[in-house]
Amino acid sequence: MKFEIYHQLGFRHQWNLQSLSDDATGDGIIIGAKSLEREKVEALPANLRGAALFDPQFFLPGVAKGQLETYNFFPQVAANDGFKSSDYADESAEISATACVQFQINSGFRYVVIPTRYMAGMPSNFIETQEELFVGPFLDAIAPQQNSPPALLQLVVTENMLKDDEYTADLLNWITGRQGIAGVYLIFESSGTSKQVKDADLLYRVLKFTAAVRENEMVVVLGYLNTESVVLTLGDPSIVTMGIYENTRSFRIRTFEDTHTEQRGPSPRLYCSQLLQWVDRNYHGALQRRLQGQNVFDQNRYQALMFQPTFKWHFTKPELYKHHFLELSCQLRTLSNVEGQARFIMARGMINAAVERFRSIEQVGIVLDQDNDGSPLASWLTAINEFAQDQGWQS
Amino acid sequence: MAGPHDKILQDYQNVELLKEGGQKAAYLATDPTHGRVVVKIGRYPSASSLERIRREVDVLRDIVSPYYPKNIDFRVEPPDLFVVVEEFVESRPLSDCVEDFEEAKTALALLKEIITGLTVLWDKRIVHRDIKPENVLILPDTSPKIIDLGIARLLDEESLTKTINARGPCTPAYASPAQLKNRKAQIDQRTDQFSLGILLVQLLLRGAHPFDPNVVRSGDSIVANILAGHWCRAELQKKAVPICIQELAAKLLGAEPFRRFRNAEAILTAIAACEAEVQ
């Protein structure tokens, strides 16, 4: 089935909205409560809200970071005296769920998102906790609503959870057996520290998880994706996401902790669709000189602007991200237009072409470091080849 | 000669012993108000088994459906007997007439009716947990009635089976892997789907059990094959059962609940698609 592309909104969300309206780079948005205060969300145009998901971001219910405190239903705010899970379930869960559901319905969002509590590792009480704190109270709050849009269950799955077959099966049995939800808003957390996911096993398992939920004819929204979205489209998700800064392209719980402060800004990087990779500004000169005429950099109006001598490269420049959205959305749309085996062949073709491109870069003496090189590609190929074998897709 | 239940049965006429076994007996009798009835009398060995019987009766009393026998009375006779009175249903157990449903079209039609009947339970968050040919009665017009809710699980109520048994309550040859492993958290309506998958294949193969080692040609026992996920799809292929029905059976027999159908509606949609194909 065709999938849609959503912008994962965070800091500088106005660039996402501009890219959506000016360049038609997506089909909707996911609004993160931490980054957008309630009033601003309510002021968004109705048509935008109609194609939006609101992520309440209850991951750490006792930490009302950023704009989370502007939402009276955020657990820490709703519980007044500070969040304690046992007291919360008894007293505040129902009030918070009712207010949050009402907010989502009144705002006219496409789905009602049932939030999740982040739990590290693979706790034995994961399902019970989610049921008690959020899933039960939210579904109870949705049930009497005549005009509620379909509900999506948010789920943050850790690498440990995904890599344990029995744990994964329990999660799948729970999700697919829970009546009253239309699907899941799935976020996976990689324990890797690299800018791209390089773990073939993890990607393969996310593919399998996505496909299993989809086989139950449920919606799957994959949040917080970087370029591995190209790989994950093979699981037949309903919606994939793109984001501006790294904290919207990879889920890290630390960004929701109150002790976390943003680190010094990274050096500017430009997305190169042929490489399926972001490449640091420091390499651009060498690439231009050594691969002259080979169009390593995608040609579009943002590229033209950025390669003017007067352009001041900085990671806070919107052109970098608008360029990324334009190019990646184009690649994703191409994949969305085909299904199953054809999508696999196309994605594999893109990855193989990127491998070749990196080889030619290496051959002219340019040595890219591990954040900019093609090292993720071998794992991506492994993941999709293994998944294709499971599906019986022929190459 | 006086029987052990004469005192209880004295209010009925034309009493006839239908079945006797273990601690239970079933009688066909005429009730002055309700006509022909089945009177089940048994001994309850523990408070939890009495509670289980009471739950079955409560479930049946709540149900107004042609797919279940109507409960007329339930009482406890001291010191340790229970009495259940149900409407009498002129019928044969499906186990006695599986061959009547061998044709794909009739098998699908029966499956659809059983699922429609089970939906009444599933909608109340009740899992039957013991679907098998013996527990499906076939009426003269071939419509089914589902019986024996003795181990049905009410998902919203506390479990009655706080056991440390390796196996949960079930008939092992018709149990899902989760029942056999006593994984209570996995018991939901999809548990019944697994038993329905076995039943469907039995209809198509004139009673042959899909996990029977003699049919599968591997494994030591039906239970071992259920746990290993080995069933006889090849036999269906040999019999040229339409692929859509093979796939329907395969999905019902999915080893994990998430591999089965999400709900009754999804199964009925799949059955409708099969029916369209076998027309």
Notes on the protein architecture:
The complex is a heterodimer of chains A (395) and B (279). Chain A is an alpha/beta fold and 395 residues long. Chain A has two domains: 4-256, Alpha-Beta Barrel (TIM Barrel); 269-391, no CATH class. Chain A contains 16 helices and ten strands. Chain A has helices at residues 13-23, 38-42, 46-50, 75-78, 85-106, 126-142, 159-162, 165-177, 200-215, 229-232, 246-249, 281-290, 301-306, 318-336, 340-363, 375-391; strands at residues 4-8, 28-32, 52-55, 112-114, 151-158, 183-189, 219-222, 239-243, 269-272, 277-280. In chain A, the strands form two sheets. Chain A has an eight-stranded parallel beta sheet. Chain A has a two-stranded antiparallel sheet with strand order 9-10. In chain A, helix 1 links the parallel strand 1 (4-8) and strand 2. In chain A, helix 5 (85-106) crosses helix 6 (126-142) and helix 15 packs antiparallel against helix 16. The longest helix of chain A is centred in the last third of the chain and has 24 residues, at 340-363. Chain A starts with a strand and ends with a helix. Chain B is α+β, with helices and mostly antiparallel strands and 279 residues long. Chain B has two domains: 10-87, Phosphorylase Kinase, domain 1; 92-278, Orthogonal Bundle (Transferase(Phosphotransferase), domain 1), CATH 1.10.510. In chain B, 37% of the residues lie in helices and 19% in strands. Chain B contains ten helices and ten strands. Chain B has helices at residues 6-9, 47-62, 104-123, 177-180, 189-204, 213-216, 222-228, 233-238, 243-252, 264-278, and strands at residues 13-21, 24-31, 35-43, 71-77, 81-87, 92-93, 126-127, 136-138, 144-146, 153-154. In chain B, strands 1-2-3-5-4 form a five-stranded antiparallel beta sheet, with helices on one face. A three-stranded antiparallel beta sheet of chain B has the order 6-8-9, with helices on one face. The radius of gyration of chain B is 19 Å and the shape is globular. The mean pLDDT of chain B is 90. The chains are: A alpha/beta (395), B alpha+beta (279).
